[in-house]
Amino acid sequence: MKIKEFVTALEMFAPLPLQDGFDNAGLQVGLTDAEATGALLCLDVTEAVVDEAIERGYNLIVSHHPLIFKGYKSLTGRDYVERCIMKAIKHDIVIFSMHTNLDNAPQGVNYKIAEKIGLKNVRILEPKEAALLKLVTFVPADRADEVRKALFEAGCGCIGNYDSCSYNVEGKGTFRAGEGTHPYCGTQGVVHEECETRIETILPAYLRRQVTAALIQAHPYEEPAYDFYPLQNEWSQVGAGVVGELPEAEEERAFLGRIKDLFEVGCVKHSRFQDRKIRTVALCGGSGAFLLPRAVASRADVFLTGEVKYHEYFNYEKDILVAEIGHYESEQYTKEIFYSIIKDVFPGLKVEMTSVNTNPINYL
User: Fold this and answer.
1) How, if at all, do strands 351-353 and 277-284 pair?
2) Is the pLDDT reported for residue 1 higher than 90?
3) Are 26 and 46 within 8 A, CB to CB?
4) Angle of CA points 331, 332, 333, to nearest 5°
5) Which stretch of DSSP H or E encloses residue 171?
6) DSSP 79-118
7) Do 197 and 146 meet the contact criterion of CB atoms below 8 Å apart?
8) Is the pLDDT of residue 364 over 90?
9) CA–CA separation, 351 vs 312, rounded Å?
């Protein structure tokens, strides 16, 4: 099996277009046409992680945080990133990263954290906006089922937990086939009237190209008419952070104590206790403090994240319990997502989580 097959499986779970604008998820180093010898899973790529892959004979490293965030004009080994790049290239190791695309994906990083905590009824805290399109096309009535099926298979028609969603209206279309055409129906030079079905359906904007290709291939007309309309709807299945409920309410101190043990946190920073009962939990792995207003609006009792700035504790302490458990600690279970994706699709591949703790922060 080639490495590109594993990359495709990872991208199907968390497509790269879901990443935020600042990010650099995806292929970092290497050629994916090589046969895979094994995959090493990590949160961060460090020299020790690359050495571990070399020692184990694995030629694929899958990380959460991208190794490369900026452009390099030279590779001289002056910092750990350059040294990792050089060493990976020397040993034919591919490095692939899934960062904010995995944060934003359904069942991604934040869903894994919610699962560890035991939350129910989990939903996206800040859904993506302006990321959906509506497709409208007109098809001969006797071919509408065939075209709809092709569109659904290409990724159209998903709304929440429903798929194959479309709206259909019967009507009459007219056209006149010009010289050199081969019309599906009608005659060259004569205005033709055809019973057609207007099909409306929804799709993620990043699928526009492949949906267009599927439509053209399935449509019987030489020149199918179709329109894409941008939507301002929130995409409720994709976005930043999540919110959910505990099976039973917990005391503030007891809840944070459980979080400390569960995530093996050296120090839980939190705002002042207000004698709240913790039932609704909002969270975001990593640097998620930008979601505090959303967490308050969701009426969560606590907001859990990896990093919070000093003044944000002042700003929100009366509205919500704010808890900071560390960037690495909050995202450490991301490796389990990688493992599940790869082992489910390619059970024969050697896959291991790194034994290296890449957390750069130590607690005295």
Assistant:
1) unpaired
2) no
3) no
4) 95
5) strand 167-176
6) SHHHHHHHHHHHTT-EEEE--HHHHHSTTSHHHHHHHHHT
7) no
8) no
9) 40
What's the pLDDT tens digit per position in 204-246? 999 999 999 999 999 999 999 999 999 999 999 999 999 999 9
Distances (CA, A) of 177 to 184, 189, 215, 218, 309: 10, 6, 20, 20, 66
Nearest to 325 by CA among 277, 278, 284: 284
Average pLDDT along the chain: 96
Compute how many other C-beta atoms are within 10 angstroms of the C-beta atom of residue 35.
9
- Residue 195 backbone phi and psi in degrees, to 5: -70, 120
Cα distance between residue 182 and residue 190, in whole Å: 13
Residue 43: helix, strand or coil by DSSP? coil
Residue 311, token pair as written in the block: 């003044």
- CA 141, distance to chain mean position in Å, is 37
Residues for the chain: how many in total? 364
Pairwise CA distance, residues 93 & 39, whole Å:
10
Mean pLDDT calculated for residue range 345-351 = 91
Backbone φ and ψ of 12, nearest 5°: -70, -35
- Helix or strand holding residue 314 (H, E): helix 310-316
Q: Is the pLDDT of residue 271 over 90?
A: yes
The pair of three-digit structure tokens given for residue 151, joined into one six-digit string: 């569109």
What stretches of 206-309 show up as alpha helix (H) in DSSP? 208-218, 252-262, 292-297
Give Cβ neighbours of residue 288 (< 8 Å, ≥ 6 apart).
Answer: 240, 241, 305, 306, 307, 330
Supply the DSSP symbol for 155: T
What is the residue type of 139? V
Neighbouring C-beta atoms of residue 49, cutoff 10 Å: 24
Q: Is the model more confident about 249 or about 317? A: 249
Radius of gyration of the chain from its Cα atoms, rounded to whole angstroms: 25
Check pLDDT > 90 for residue 127.
yes
Question: What pTM was computed for the model?
Answer: 0.90
d(CA 349, CA 339) in angstroms, rounded, equals: 11
